[in-house]
Amino acid sequence: MANAQNLSIALVHYPVYDKNGDLVATAVTNLDIHDIARSGRTYGISRYYIVTPVVEQQKLVEKIRLHWLEGWGATYNPKRKAALETIQIESSIALALADIEKRTGKRAKTVVTGAAGRPNSISFKELSGLLEEPEQPYLLLLGTGWGLSKEIFDQSDYVLEPISGGGDYNHLSVRSAAAIMLDRLFGR
Amino acid sequence: MANAQNLSIALVHYPVYDKNGDLVATAVTNLDIHDIARSGRTYGISRYYIVTPVVEQQKLVEKIRLHWLEGWGATYNPKRKAALETIQIESSIALALADIEKRTGKRAKTVVTGAAGRPNSISFKELSGLLEEPEQPYLLLLGTGWGLSKEIFDQSDYVLEPISGGGDYNHLSVRSAAAIMLDRLFGR
């Protein structure tokens, strides 16, 4: 059975495309932090990395995190505390990978996700099989804005098949996509 | 195969519980509107009802809807327009059911959802089977706040099994839960 403890998620705010195809750093949004942390905790993933090189944005995430972990929020809603404990802020995907290597002693394999179909992508079932390997960490990369840069796709170890709803419309929010991915991998 | 056109969703803002177990009307949130509309459109459901008896809240939803359907948003992001076209505002669950009956000529069967397990709940597979019946509409009721009132559970035709992530933590956002439910019903 696929082991969720072998999986970490990175929500990447740079390098991603904007509407015009330019590379930008997107702003962190509060509900991305909460929703994906709650989904991640429900399915038992290892870490949820918020990746942004923008120092002010890192401070904002840390402020939200501490509010729920140590501030008034920790008493008001302990369930939210348990979810946000999985959050870690990193400046880049490389630093998130370095953190996984420090924790586990192994370099994580990267799995990139996107709404468009690509050649050589692996299915959810194949990824689920890979996550059965003992002690091999994986990092699932989720893009914000209009998606992860071509460079990230080219450098990743695996590309995951897009989620299809059966029709030609395929514009889930990153929060919804993350929830569905985790359920397909671990929710049975 | 389960027919998504037989399914509508109602996001219910009253009657739901607050943290203290009192019945309240919760506030509509912008991302509940967008995320669930996008998930609903991806899987091809019939309607997405936003249920609130609070007139000011109905006006707010209508303002958001029109911004994306007819205002600046329709040109800026046509994909969002396609999602928000499924939205309809109703004052109560009864009026959402009346609207379905007007459109289809049949009374919808109600399916209530919640995070806690209950006796006599049906599985996703069983609901998927029910959605194969030709021309029998179903209305999936999603609660906000701390969940739908006991009365709604008692009056509903079916209770859907809760989503489990395998562990003891089960606190998905309503946006994530809706996405996972639609994927389990229609996403293969």
Biggest interface goes to: A-B, 35 and 35 residues
Query: What does the average pLDDT of chain A come to?
Result: 94
Q: How many helices of chain A?
A: 8
Biggest β-sheet of chain A: count, sense, barrel? 6 strands, parallel
Give the spatial strand order of the biggest sheet of chain A.
5-4-1-7-6-8
What oligomerization state is this entry in? Answer: homodimer
State which percent range the strand residues of chain A make up.
15-25%
Shape of chain A: globular
Rg of chain A (C-alpha, Å): 16 Å
Question: How do the helices and strands line up, and which of them pair or pack?
Answer:
The structure is a homodimer of 188-residue chains.
Chain A: E1 7-12, E2 16-17, E3 23-24, H1 30-43, E4 48-51, H2 55-69, H3 72-76, H4 78-84, E5 87-90, H5 93-104, E6 109-112, H6 124-130, E7 138-143, H7 150-155, E8 158-159, H8 174-186
Parallel strand pairs in A: 1-4, 1-7, 4-5, 6-7, 6-8
Antiparallel strand pairs in A: 2-3
Helix pairs in contact in A: 1-4, 1-8, 6-8
